[in-house]
Amino acid sequence: MAEKKSKAEVDALLDQLLEGHAPGSIFDPGGLIHDLTKRLAERALEAELSAHLGYEKHAPEGRNGSNSRNGRSRKRIKTDTREVDLEIPRDRDGSFEPQLVPKHTRRLPGFDEKVIALYARGLTTRDIQDGLKEIYHVDVSPSLISSITDSVLDEVRTWQARPLEEVYPILYLDAIHVKMRQGRQVKPVAVYVALALNLEGKKDLLGLWVGESEGAKFWLGVLTELRNRGVQDVLIAAIDGLKGFPEAVEAVFPKTQVQLCIVHMVRNSLRFVSWKYRQKVAADLREIYSAPTVEAAEVVLDRFEEKWDAEYPMISKSWRRHWTNLTAFFEYPPELRKVIYTTNAIESINAQLRKVISKRGSFPSQDSILKVMFLAMTRASSRWTRSVKDWTAALNQLMSNFGDRIPV
After folding, report:
1. 270 in Cβ contact with 310 (< 8 Å)
2. Which of 109, 128, 122, 129 is nearest to 377 (CA)?
3. Which domain range does residue 234 map to?
4. Collapsed DSSP state (helix, strand, coil) of residue 73
5. Among candidate residues 144, 162, 180, the one where a domain is terminated
6. What are the φ/ψ torsions at residue 122 (nearest 5 degrees)?
7. 347 part of a folded domain
8. What's the predicted TM-score (pTM) here?
């Protein structure tokens, strides 16, 4: 093995390489970095062929052997910074299979990853094409970009079909709406998002599904799929006020406690209110779900009804109609309530997704939606934090409420 060079020796070699090159030209097309990439790749290919043949170039062992070098072929390769023309060595019997640049490969390692990283940030195929040409002077066809990003689909399908845990303490279900091209029309579609807190208190994105529009029937299919992937029990499901949604949850997980999202409920209530009174109505509604007990909340709702029913009778009627599913969180201590009565955990994920999709007018297909959102979530998940700081105390509280439904 070659002895590792000292820092001084490396610096001396770098000085030799830089001699005669203007600093501003080092990274130019055809500059020093381009030339080094080409020469290093070709030296590595020559070393590969020597290992394949069993002797070095010009060595006497190669004379009159069964196989030998047989010239070179030219190949233009895309790297993660630019295009490089390489001289690929060949052997006489055609058995040499280079590892650095395999046959039929036109891209060096790193190029695909760069394209996928740009795609994950919400850039369109055309944006990526223009960016690579402008920054790296690499011409890439839209079909090649699509081919590279399509490689993500296998990963998406594997992830979407993976086995899940048997029990999740809290499951959040929500949908985000995006635009998709269908023929000559652009129509809104719903992306269904299922996020859970597992028994360790960590967020686990269970899946993404694309449907024509948000509806309880589609959610029933999503929940059935979760069950088929191994989920046997969900303690609490936090959902929005979509008609038929609680019944869909109970059809698949009959023991699950359903909590309607208070934030969604307040937002829907304020639709009935003029701008002049929205802040006052919102403050009075906050007193309901901030009450210490469900009995105290009922008293506050009575007061709200007396104060606002003359102008906005639909608000109190809606809260009373959904009261059972709106007040499930009162069974838990204050530090756990907010995690249960809002779908903020999944709303924050949807906010991250909206940042990505805001860069696009519309998507060409369901596959493109899933690719972008899966990549965005994979990138964002490294920054996720716990929703509950003292998860041990929260889990103990859940165990006292749900007993043997939580495995130990």
Report:
1. no
2. 122
3. 165-261+362-408
4. strand
5. 162
6. 95, 5
7. no
8. 0.70
Give the H or E element holding residue 194: strand 185-197
Same domain, yes or no: 256 and 402: yes
- 127, 296, 298, 320, 391 from 292: Cα distances, Å: 53, 7, 11, 18, 21
Backbone phi and psi for residue 223, each to the nearest 5 degrees, phi listed first? -65, -40
96 vs 41: CA distance, rounded Å? 16
Distance CA 17, CA 53 (A): 31
Tokens 């999709």 locate to 357
- Copy the structure tokens of residue 263: 């934030």
> Structure tokens of 143?
């079909």
d(CA 293, CA 112): 56
Supply 82's token pair. Answer: 């630019």
Cα separation of 65 and 261, whole Å?
77
Cβ–Cβ under 8 Å, residues 281 and 269: yes
Model pLDDT for residues 242-265, shown as the tens digit of each residue = 889 999 999 999 999 999 999 889
Contact 315, 281 (CB under 8 A): yes
List residues bridging with 170 in a β-sheet: 197, 236
Report if residue 17 sits inside a domain: no
Residue at 42: amino acid letter = E
30: left (phi over 0), alpha (psi -120 to 50) or beta: left
Does residue 94 sit in the same domain as residue 218?
A: no
In the block, residue with structure tokens 């439904």: 405
Number of domains in the chain: 4
C-alpha to C-alpha distance for 168 and 407, rounded to whole angstroms: 10
Residue 175 structure tokens = 């949908």
257 and 174, same structural domain?
A: yes
Instruction: Please name the residue that has the structure tokens 């969604």.
Output: 264
CB 134 within 8 A of CB 101: no
Q: 403 and 335, same structural domain?
A: no
147 and 268, same domain (yes or no):
no
Domain closes at, from 118, 134, 162: 162
DSSP 256: P
One domain, residues 243 and 129: no
Domain identity same for 233 and 251: yes
In a domain, 20, yes or no: no
DSSP 367: H
Q: Are residues 392 and 243 in the same domain?
A: yes
Per-residue pLDDT of 330-372, as tens digits, reads 999 887 888 888 777 777 777 777 877 777 778 888 888 888 8
